Amino acid sequence: MEPPLRTERGSAGHVVGWTALVAFLLALLTIIAALAFSVHVKGHSMEPTVHQGDRLLVQFWKRGDPRRFDLVEAQVGVAKTPVVKRIVGLPGDTVAVTFAKGEPVVTVTPAGSDTTYVVENPRWTEQVGDRIAPCCNADGTAGTAPTEVVVPADSYWLLGDNWGGSDDSRTYGFVKKADVGGVLNLRIQPLSRFGTVPNPARLVAQN
């Protein structure tokens, strides 16, 4: 009976060994894929939500249907510079920016609605700086007076959480859907802050 017992133990050992190897390879491939499909944040325009050096997973399968207030990777300007911003205006929305006591007041009338909402994002009040021009010109950029503008059907209107230190749609205008690479709602580095990126923004009905 001894030889068969050793054979069985040897077979079980091989199975365990192969299982461990496959698990290791799958874990390694998962890490490589996550790093390959990720964005390394540069700059401070989305602080304090995400910081320079953070790495965010690019959910490219959601690029065609992002939701309001999703973080997205987008290519902007003639040079197609990659940026990380928050979607505030969806196609067909009417948007405008005024200021009250030095703090931004962003209003959005969703496409097909007669109700105008104020965007409540506590990050903005924490980060108000010197970029406080009203909005918007016809192309979505900041102007000299608050004027409502409609987001084109093929575009989004983006803002940074660091309001006073962000180059966003107030600088480069509407961003076309084709220039959005994916949604960035999951942080994978640093590991100490791994998980869903906080989303404090919401629409609040005007009083």
TrEMBL record:
Which Gene Ontology cellular component annotation is one that this UniProt entry carries?
A: ribosome
**CDD domains for the chain:** S26_SPase_I
Q: What class of enzyme is it?
A: hydrolase
| Keywords annotated in UniProt | Hydrolase, Membrane, Protease, Ribonucleoprotein, Ribosomal protein, Transferase, Transmembrane, Transmembrane helix
Catalyses which reaction(s): Cleavage of hydrophobic, N-terminal signal or leader sequences from secreted and periplasmic proteins
Q: Where are the transmembrane segments?
A: 15-37
What range(s) does the Peptidase S26 domain occupy?
A: 20-187
Q: What is its EC number?
A: 3.4.21.89
Q: InterPro entries this protein is in?
A: LexA/Signal_pep-like_sf, Pept_S26A_signal_pept_1, Peptidase_S26
**Membrane topology of the entry:** Single-pass type II membrane protein
Extract the GO molecular function terms from the UniProt entry. signal peptidase activity; transferase activity
Keyword Ribosomal protein listed: yes
Please state the protein's primary subcellular location: membrane
Q: Where in the cell is it found?
A: Cell membrane; Membrane
Which family does the UniProt entry place this protein in? Belongs to the peptidase S26 family.
| Name of this chain's protein | Signal peptidase I
The organism of origin for this protein: Nocardioides jiangxiensis
